[in-house]
């Protein structure tokens, strides 16, 4: 029987849920808002690139203060900076397209501060026996939020006719961020660690280290995530010209994801991660194939439902295995902040690489088939993650 989550884990899930909710309400439609002002794939890709760049740099630089000072300050600061971003979007309005780089860097900074602190605290409030369950609940919460958040936002934008609807949902997100800050005060202050080691990522990548497998796996995971994070909702809007369709898409796919995350979080065992991750990686690649024939709402829905159904099989093992690696010795536990930074830097390298690949290839051949073939190529990178992690997964299965 699996161990139950403790009260601090549940509270952290709630804070995470509010942060994700604010992003689901507004972030789902942010790129569409920019597209309606200036329909340019490269512009939105550079906006995403600036966010990813800031997020990676913040993880590396802020790691020192998160390790040596109160982590809760940075958790709250991440929420505050994210709120300031939406305040500026409200203020600049349609001129947001003129400030893509500074706004992207600001948004990435807020996300980086929050997720760095969250990941460190998440590691501290869970253990090897509760990590899969916690990740399952993170997926369930994300799915529930995905069911209602974008659907409500899409509906409000539709009935308020565009600009007024966007301003309304951006304001709601600010209120949700405020609620997240208040709730975070019930999280206990965490212990500070030893002095931060700036060059730890290099040290942990030395020959013979298991991080020689985990870091490339995380980078391969980022290759897919970097492009898919901004492209899917944009393609739905381009195909349908209706924001409410994005909400409908999110509602259906998140409902499927809710069931899938619950099932995988409940029944996936450490000893079955090896085959579970492989099956998941292959299937979330296969569901992209219909887009190679035609891009419309139906084929996008097929891909979305298929991804929601099979993604937990891939995602939970890849996250849990890396965090288990952080906890496998007293030395790595002490260096948990540096290792979480290494994990995020690896993912960021993948995200930046995937986004740059998209910008470069699409700039040379600006056609829809270019986008779909890029989606298939980058969508297959979870298989590379499994190849990089397979020895680690086998060792974990034997130990279990």
UniProtKB/TrEMBL annotation:
The keyword Methyltransferase does not apply. GO terms for cellular component: plasma membrane. It is found in: Cell membrane. Keywords: Membrane, Transmembrane, Transmembrane helix. This is MFS transporter. Pfam families: MFS_1. The chain crosses the membrane at residues 12-35, 41-61, 73-93, 99-122, 134-152, 164-187, 222-240, 246-265, 274-293, 299-326, 347-365, 371-389.
